[in-house]
Request: fold
Amino acid sequence: MSYKKWIRSGSVALLSAAFLFVTACGGGNSSNNNTSTDTTSTSTATNATNESASTEKDPIKIGVLASMTGALESYGKQTTRGFELGLDYATQGTREVDGRPIQFIVEDTETKSDVAVQKATKLLENDKVDFLVGSSSSADTLAVLPLAEEYKKPIIVEPAVADSITGESWNKYVFRTARNSSQDAVAGAASIAKQGTKIATFAPDSAFGRDGIKAFKATAEKLGATIVDEEYADATATDFTANIQKIIQAKPDYLFVVWAGANSPWKQIHDMKVQDQGIKISTGAPDIAALKTMNDLVGMEGFTVYYYELPQNDVNKWLVEEHKKRFNGEVPDLFTPGGMSAAIAIVEAIKKTNGDTDADKLIAAMEGMTFDTPKGQMKFRPEDHQALQTLYAIKLEKKDGYDYPVPVLVREMSMDETAPPIMNKK
Reply:
């Protein structure tokens, strides 16, 4: 990848430079499925300074696990785009820290846990990476976590959200820039749950789906709501008729949906006239491709992890502008800032250790570390290494010039407000 000339404005570089409920990435204002990082490729800076530095010190190697094909392909491609942009932002384009050039290797997990383990083992044993990053699927990530502990290498989890990753399956090498299901649940429940509210839920039958609903249910019930029906469908299903019929029969006030992947249920929910039964739909605002299927949900109040127009900070401004420059005018999508945040976290940690990639030193540097991201400041909570972060309460509105309902900010929910419970029993 050729590197663009940096422009400075004050102390911030202004070149131009994550979800729960989303489908594959589409066109229009969304990212397409092209990426500057190919599967199983190694990327290094190509400028002369980096080439010279690489002869002096050993490179820092990062292995990125992502769904570059399959149902979560858009997640993987958004994340890897963001990761590459994050390296450039955090190093001001040099792709090096303390004179050590940074290399990253992307491996396609195919959204299969056994493949994820194989690829992670290859990265750890053959490529001798200093960090793992990923992956797109919670199941893939949970399968890989024991390897981080076995090989004593930090893993930055992005964008997988299952609570168990920083809960019962956690080990000290696990850090997560992605939000977890409980953070989403706080935001989702706060938007609809109150005393006497009846809620049905719908999610894929997976670690991602069940953890998401478990966390949502706990939060909603604390606010006085009643869960009248829980529906789970096979994660690869395309026909949700039976599930939706049961939801209608339960007569809830709201249907709260947790979904991920290209096979979203939105069209069938509309075709079966769920809203005509007096049932309001609530969910997290997904990526732009999925928003294009949600025109019938204009007016819905929910939340989102990220939409490129919401955060007002210099890092996000850089990301939006640089993404447009590199990708034919396209804007960053839901998981792009997460990939960027993971890269920034790694670079900031290595700066703190003065270029030392010893795992124990990196862990000490990252515990409690705060760092700037496109979503504002994040902080790795010392107790479980979960990144505390801002989420956004939104309303879907129709706007001229957009072919999808746009998430409009109702309010930002601070990292303290959305902090999830500590579940790893450390």
The chain has a mean pLDDT of 87. The CA atoms of residues 17 and 157 lie 21 Å apart. The chain has two domains: 8-179+311-389, 182-308+392-413.
